[in-house]
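Deliverable D2.4 — example input (structure tokens):
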């Protein structure tokens, strides 16, 4: 586990236990740590994608043991890393895809529901688009592509679970989800 992963995990664990807003706490910690890691504040400079992976991993691990909503935490983590990526010049679509992929992998590792995590990751990407002034569809697509790749790497069962969850989520843009999952544009 990297120093950044441990730092995020420790910071989130201490803040969440005393905080009311899981989404905003996770978002702020994620953004701050991506920015610091990419800019090289405090430790060795990391690439944008490595910083995103480390922040999401530490965040999901902390949230999964803190007794709070993992789905809310995931929304905040994804929003935060996309916000941080935008601030330091990392491509936001790549950031959304990397964040969503890492969410699914880490939630699977800690024994969580990968379907719920997938929906939360896309929700986080969509909300992040509003935060940073990017196209909602583009960031949602990046997140979905990252999720599908990660879920299929885990197992065919995980791939099926996330596809079903994404298609059945009432809060997601179905035109984008349907096009990505079925190849149909109408």
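Example output (designed residues):
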């Amino acid at each position: 586990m990297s120093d950044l992963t441990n730092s995020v995990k420790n910071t989130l664990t201490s803040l969440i236990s005393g905080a009311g807003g899981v989404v905003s706490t996770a978002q702020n910690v994620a953004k701050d740590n991506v920015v610091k890691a990419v800019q090289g504040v405090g430790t060795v400079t990391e690439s944008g994608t490595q910083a995103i992976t480390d922040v999401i991993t530490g965040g999901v691990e902390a949230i999964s043991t803190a007794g709070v909503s993992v789905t809310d935490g995931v929304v905040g983590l994804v929003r935060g890393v996309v916000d941080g990526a935008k601030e330091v010049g990392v491509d936001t679509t790549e950031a959304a895809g990397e964040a969503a992929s890492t969410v699914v992998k880490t939630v699977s590792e800690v024994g969580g529901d990968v379907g719920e995590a997938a929906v939360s990751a896309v929700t986080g990407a969509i909300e992040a688009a509003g935060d940073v002034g990017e196209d909602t569809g583009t960031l949602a697509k990046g997140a979905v592509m990252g999720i599908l790749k990660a879920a299929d790497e885990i197992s065919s069962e995980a791939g099926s679970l996330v596809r079903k969850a994404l298609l059945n989520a009432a809060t997601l843009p179905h035109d984008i989800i349907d096009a990505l999952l079925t190849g149909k544009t109408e």
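The first helix runs from residue 3 to 18.
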